[in-house]
């Protein structure tokens, strides 16, 4: 038995990559995990199957996190099965355009900003009642080092995640008195993710060369930082950012 036994975690965008690794690790540490997905139902069920085969408890829940009604239905589904959500890991990747500012339209930049914050706002608003009722909760947002360290073509992602991080800090200030912590995990480049597939081998070699620890992050590296924030060891930490980047950026 562990400190986390019986607690309920919702991981958005958990059918692959960072989300799947996080779901696996939280389940391994005793949490019941709701594996959110939008399009990849078979992959989400594989994550659930792996958790259950290892003796954990999990369920796949479909929802577009940008849609209020869908999120409410998802959270109610989890509540009906297990009760309120204790831990929210908001990881779902909202689509974005990779291009320069000069080539970008407002719809591409503004759309990403709107969708990023709308999703975080909607999911957080929906899980908060159960957390405030219990006087305890953990909220972890997955951001990116691009929010502080610009890279060519990534203005839409970097700008929207910078907004998400400030949103998280305001929530940390407001929700702290209610026993709810809000923290950010900001990975550098992560191998074996959909974003990584957008770049060629030469690009990856340059990223590795710029990383003091000599490799890119793996989803499991990010998952361990998330699990720290979800657990008891981070009890007196809120409004903070964990940079999981192997030293590529130091702040």
UniProtKB/TrEMBL annotation:
<dbReference type="Pfam" id="PF13561">
    <property type="entry name" value="adh_short_C2"/>
</dbReference>
<dbReference type="InterPro" id="IPR050259">
    <property type="entry name" value="SDR"/>
</dbReference>
<protein>
    <submittedName>
        <fullName>SDR family oxidoreductase</fullName>
    </submittedName>
</protein>
<comment type="similarity">
    <text>Belongs to the short-chain dehydrogenases/reductases (SDR) family.</text>
</comment>
<dbReference type="InterPro" id="IPR002347">
    <property type="entry name" value="SDR_fam"/>
</dbReference>
<dbReference type="InterPro" id="IPR036291">
    <property type="entry name" value="NAD(P)-bd_dom_sf"/>
</dbReference>
């Amino acid at each position: 038995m562990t400190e986390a036994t019986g607690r309920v975690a919702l991981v958005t965008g958990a059918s692959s990559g960072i989300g799947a690794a996080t779901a696996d690790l939280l389940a391994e540490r005793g949490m019941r995990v709701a594996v959110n997905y939008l399009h990849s139902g078979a992959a989400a069920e594989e994550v659930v199957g792996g958790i259950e085969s290892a003796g954990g408890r999990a369920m796949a829940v479909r929802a577009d996190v940008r849609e209020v009604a869908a999120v409410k239905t998802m959270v109610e589904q989890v509540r009906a099965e297990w009760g309120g959500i204790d831990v929210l890991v908001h990881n779902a990747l909202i689509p974005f355009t990779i291009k320069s500012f000069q080539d970008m339209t407002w719809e591409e930049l503004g759309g990403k900003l709107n969708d990023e914050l709308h999703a975080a706002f909607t999911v957080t608003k929906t899980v908060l009642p159960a957390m405030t009722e219990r006087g305890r909760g953990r909220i972890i947002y997955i951001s990116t080092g691009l929010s502080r360290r610009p890279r060519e073509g990534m203005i839409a992602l970097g700008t929207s995640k910078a907004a998400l991080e400030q949103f998280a800090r305001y929530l940390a200030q407001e929700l702290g008195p209610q026993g709810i912590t809000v923290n950010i995990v900001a990975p550098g480049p992560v191998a074996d993710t959909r974003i990584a597939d957008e770049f060629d081998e030469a690009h990856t070699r340059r990223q590795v060369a710029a990383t003091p620890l000599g490799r890119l992050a793996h989803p499991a590296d990010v998952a361990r930082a998330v699990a720290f924030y979800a657990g008891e060891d981070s009890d007196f930490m809120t409004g903070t950012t964990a940079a999981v980047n192997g030293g590529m950026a130091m702040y």
